[in-house]
């Protein structure tokens, strides 16, 4: 999880390309995850591998850069809460990816800005910005088109379509809701903690909780075929590399890690899922997905 910035930053060509690279790797991570799930890996195993390696890499960065680890009592209370929320988000999002076309799972998850506004209102009594309120119906219309909620594109009809996608959509929205809450708590309670330290502690807790989940399910569910190992190692390497770039290259470029440009991740996932997994969606669903992505980017590029 990256730090936030209070003002927009002009992007150089190199910074723009780096942000696109991170978005590509994040999208590819989820395609690799689906590949692993299709060959015997379960969600807890995938999250444990991904988060454990990322925690190790970012932890080494913390040590290398001699980041101070002094935490206040408030930080000690809130960081475990954030860790639990990110663990739930990770498990829910991968559970959605295992059930839905990858791009659709990510599009449903991309509603998290709406959940962020809701949690900020509920917990801190912050009124949503007018821009957010205007974006809500547009984003929901785009999501409805992308998910084909009435079953028109699939020809299944609404009831059969929801029988097909309902559980996966539920997991994606639960991931969005928990991630939105984690972002709100981070902004208001832990924004003064160094981003590398915050990410290392969060990923470490996610890995521990995922390992507990692995234990309750009788151990690791490892791939049953070579392509499953490609998926598991791929998702681990892609996620860890993306986070490493986020905390080593981007700060030197003066670009915040959660730049709106990285919200093109579902677009990359759509292309990769078609090329690698053979997943396709109807043209109207593609249009709805692009509407969601454009709306999220419009929100992310707003002046604060």
From TrEMBL:
Residue spans crossing the bilayer: 43-65, 77-96, 102-120, 132-153, 165-185, 197-215, 227-248, 260-277, 283-301
Domain EamA residues, every copy: 18-146, 168-299
Coiled-coil annotated spans: none
Iron keyword on record: no
Keyword Transmembrane found: yes
Domain of life: Bacteria
GO cellular component: membrane
Keywords annotated in UniProt: Membrane, Transmembrane, Transmembrane helix
InterPro entries named in the record: EamA_dom, EmrE-like
Protein name in UniProt: Transporter
Annotated organism of origin: Hydrogenophaga crassostreae
Lineage, opening ranks: Bacteria, Pseudomonadati, Pseudomonadota, Betaproteobacteria, Burkholderiales
